[in-house]
Specification:
Two copies of one chain form a homodimer. By secondary structure, the first copy, chain A, is an alpha/beta fold. Helix content of chain A is 44%, strand content 16%. Chain A has one domain: TIM Barrel (Alpha-Beta Barrel). In chain A, the strands form two sheets. An eight-stranded parallel β-barrel of chain A has the order 1-2-3-6-7-8-9-10, surrounded by eight helices. The first copy, chain A, is globular, with a radius of gyration of 19 Å. Chains A and B meet through α2, α3, α4, α5 and β4 of A and α2, α3, α4, α5 and β4 of B.
Chain lengths: 316, 316
């Protein structure tokens, strides 16, 4: 089987698009058309989101290689929302997109194993059956509980040919509260996590030179990104903070390697809600899909252009 | 309305039980009786767990004031498991128990707001309706993303008269990887989080002197617990690590204040799976319930005894 890091890299090169579209369906921000005829209940909201997500996925398939559903917006609707998350993942995969599940899970021991099995692996049922209810390709993981809490996610990802992105430097200001604290060797928490992940990444590298034992590094701190990139030369980086959060196309270049690979940049609100400035609240679904496709195309061109400028000899 | 920290404190005193029973239903560890007649599917597993949980709740109501369902064991079963989580919470509340949802959620900005609304507050739907799908009283929260990621949880908890337990010092060894890193002022990460939480806790304190802006502090590091207790004199502490993880009754005393309050000690496996040493795999449900009640009673007596020894003048 092709290593997942290679498979993602090939798709990025084919589309010239190291970008991922965040599926953050905020009920108050979606066009009215998706709610028509549905009850004002958790189930109705989940149905609206699934319809909305299918349109977003249809609009970006062929432009972006991946989508990143943010679990909070599904989970907040209870089990109806979680079912919608499962359906969204399955739909995106049928359309040929990679799915990065943004859930930032973390816990210790057996509990971490349960999360890893549920989100990345096989859930062994009581009898002979097994199930994989979420079906994502990649999962984001929070490292607050340390290396022994990360291990089950790393082991499961490698065994299943899936990937993880461990939070290393998040895109928000407050992240420094924990992430800038210093270890005895002079590294801060982000850097020490990067050193740990470098070692782990080496245990599973594709032919393209990258590992799916990756890291989240925000676009909002480009100098730090450069340091962290150097500490994790083989890890795929998931880069949030582009667009609505303030990161520009030039800010993301330090997250990449000179071959133009090794990172994937997320935009959520900048793509999903671009329609508010053009066709507006009462747009048709067709207008909405066009707005999403245009915003995704614009992002792809900006990122690709910035990379070409930074790395003229890149691979694609 | 009575402050939630007072309500929990009253119930702890009435039962002489500063303890919480963890609902960590691991499929491979449950008695066979709960699976009889159910299909070997995610839905069947969720139904078995709900039946099992009702028996655990019935057995411990009147002994312990609270239960702590660990989300990983539900979420791993997909939306069927999340529905079981919702049903379990509702059942525990009907039986008069407090529910501490152990989900360790965390994210930034709008996403943290979505988690806080879903788990502790009101989810505003598209129309005039609102919903609270999970219904827990307390939620555990991970602080890796820093103060601005914690704020939505703190604000929502206070507004809704609910509580949070922020991870400060976890019970696992690996936790030190992040939690021992040092700030410029000499505090480590755990201590600096404690200083932050102390300030936040002060903004909502019950008549008993405690705040439901609390912290997780493991029983496995009693010296550190003493320091952290002193830094957070008003915060309720949730104490994992007792029993199966190695913490003894004497180890938990430093997590409490001299009035015998201010903390609640969790045991999960030590209570749920005590039956394996007595009636075994093929026990009846009635035998299972008795085993749970006996193990919960034993834990209550151990903790209460250790507290009485450490704090002879405690309030109950």
């Amino acid at each position: 089987m092709q290593h997942i890091a290679d498979a993602l890299g090939e798709k990025i090169m084919a589309l010239k698009a190291p970008v991922v579209v965040g599926l953050d369906p905020a009920l108050e921000s979606m066009p009215e058309a998706y709610f028509a005829g549905l009850p004002d209940t958790l189930e109705g909201a989940a149905a609206a989101i699934y319809d909305f997500n299918q349109d977003v996925i249809d609009a970006v398939a062929g432009i972006a290689p991946a989508v990143k559903p943010q679990m909070a917006f599904y989970e907040m609707l209870g089990h109806a929302g979680v079912r919608c998350f499962e359906e969204t993942t399955a739909y995106a995969k049928r359309r040929g997109l990679f799915v990065i599940e943004d859930s930032k899970r973390n816990d210790i021991g057996n509990t971490a194993k349960a999360y890893a099995a549920g989100h990345l692996g096989q859930v062994k049922l009581r009898g002979a059956s097994a199930a994989s209810p979420y079906g994502a390709d990649f999962l984001t993981v929070s490292p607050f509980l340390g290396d022994d809490s990360l291990e089950p996610f790393i082991r499961t990802a490698i065994a299943e040919n899936k990937g993880i992105f461990v939070l290393v430097r998040t895109s928000n200001k407050g992240g420094g509260m924990v992430q800038y604290a210093k270890q005895e060797d002079g590294h801060n928490v982000s850097e020490s996590l990067a050193v740990y992940l470098k070692e782990q990444a080496q245990t599973s590298v594709g032919t393209g030179g990258y590992s799916a034992i990756g890291a989240v590094v925000g676009a909002t701190f480009p100098k730090e990104a450069k340091t962290l990139r150097a500490l994790m030369p083989q890890s795929l980086l998931l880069v949030p903070g582009y667009g609505a959060q303030g990161g520009g196309a030039a800010d993301v270049a330090p997250c990449f390697c000179p071959d133009g690979l090794g990172a994937i940049v997320n935009s959520s609100r900048g793509i999903l809600y671009a329609y508010q400035k053009t066709c507006g609240e009462n747009c048709t679904k067709e207008q909405y899909r066009k707005s999403v496709a245009a915003a995704a195309r614009e992002m792809q061109q900006e990122i690709y252009g910035a990379l070409k400028a930074a790395y003229p000899d890149m691979k694609y």
